Amino acid sequence: AAVRGLSTTAQLSKINNVTVIGAGLMGSGIAQVSANAKLNVVVVDSNQSALDKAQKGIESSLQRVAKKKHADDAKAQTALVSSVLDRIKMSTNMSDSVKDADLVIEAIVENIDIKRKLFAEVEAAAKPTTLITTNTSSLRLADIGLNLKDKTRFGGLHFFNPVPMMKLLEVVRHNDTSDDTFQKLMEYGKAVGKTTVACKDTPGFIVNRLLVPYMFEALRLYERGDASMPDIDVAMKLGAGYPMGPFELSDYVGLDTCKFIMDGWHKQYPDEVAFKPSPLLDSLVDAGKTGRKSGEGFYKYK
Ligand code: 3HC
């Protein structure tokens, strides 16, 4: 058992440098939890203003975490925030940022062509041992990784929003992911404080395969005129113990993201009733009402 313990530690210690590609909400959260676990992090984005926004977002999230951890100690709060921030570098240069990475986590837009191109570039610039992963929420790994020469080091790390708070990490293996890669990804998940579950390369993995159709079923219930939005939200919070009702959660995740996931699955599985489009969702997204981030979705926000 001691030998087994040792080898686990030795494997885990191989991941020191993490490069996160994409400085959006998910990328920022992933960078934060990785740096918090004492890993060296580089966040890459082609857009400098996205990097600046990510830096601010990480700082304010860390302040919330620090306030909770060191309630009456302002000095300890500042020390925690700056020690984590010190381990995060921002860069607009992708190939430079992945060359020392032990683990690359992609968290860019859900566009298959852009991702395929990016992964080919990442593989060319990275070491031959670097683990290459995607935080995709709805696309198939087999499709995303199509252009990779070595698919054994490729897998999925699917985090949940808000990343610092949500305790789950779905670790996804596709047909070619090696046992060693999968094991290391599970170890990384534990190192960043998440509970890991093993998923296959199927639409929505576990959580979104159940959660997204549930959110859509709520929309259909409303569209049929069977209940109001606030009543549906209250019902699911108080009757099923969910922290947010389905409409609050959709606004929180982003209606554009919800629509993107459903449209993609509908195209892939046209006969699956659960994946059918919703006229209300389509019209809100068309009008730019994408949820909390735009100030309005199903509800209005200040
Ligand atoms: N960073 C750090 N701390 C945060 C935070 C953040 N981004 N967001 C919230 N917190 C902390 C707050 O500081 C607060 O701490 P406290 O209780 O000690 O004061 C605590 O979380 C609670 O926050 P709030 O009081 O603001 O609000 P809530 O009690 O409603 O909690 C929530 C917020 C954790 C977001 C909770 O509502 C929740 O769990 N909602 C459901 C989220 C969910 O289901 N996410 C998954 C979406 S699906 C997904 O991401 C997959 C993708 O592929 C689509």
UniProtKB/TrEMBL annotation:
This is 3-hydroxyacyl-CoA dehydrogenase. Homodimer. CoA binds at residues 61, 68, 137. Residues 17-202 form the 3-hydroxyacyl-CoA dehydrogenase NAD binding domain. The keyword Secreted does not apply. GO terms for cellular component: mitochondrial matrix. PANTHER family: HYDROXYACYL-COENZYME A DEHYDROGENASE, MITOCHONDRIAL, PTHR43561. NAD(+) binds at residues 22-27, 45, 110, 115, 137, 161, 293. Keywords: Fatty acid metabolism, Lipid metabolism, Mitochondrion, NAD, Oxidoreductase. Pathway: Lipid metabolism; fatty acid beta-oxidation. InterPro entries: 3-OHacyl-CoA_DH, 3-OHacyl-CoA_DH_CS, 3-OHacyl-CoA_DH_NAD-bd, 3HC_DH_C, 6-PGluconate_DH-like_C_sf, 6PGD_dom2, Mito_3-hydroxyacyl-CoA_DH, NAD(P)-bd_dom_sf. It is found in: Mitochondrion matrix. Residues 204-301 form the 3-hydroxyacyl-CoA dehydrogenase C-terminal domain. GO terms for biological process: fatty acid metabolic process. It is an enzyme of class 1 (oxidoreductase). It catalyses: a (3S)-3-hydroxyacyl-CoA + NAD(+) = a 3-oxoacyl-CoA + NADH + H(+). Its main location: mitochondrion. Belongs to the 3-hydroxyacyl-CoA dehydrogenase family. It comes from the Eukaryota.
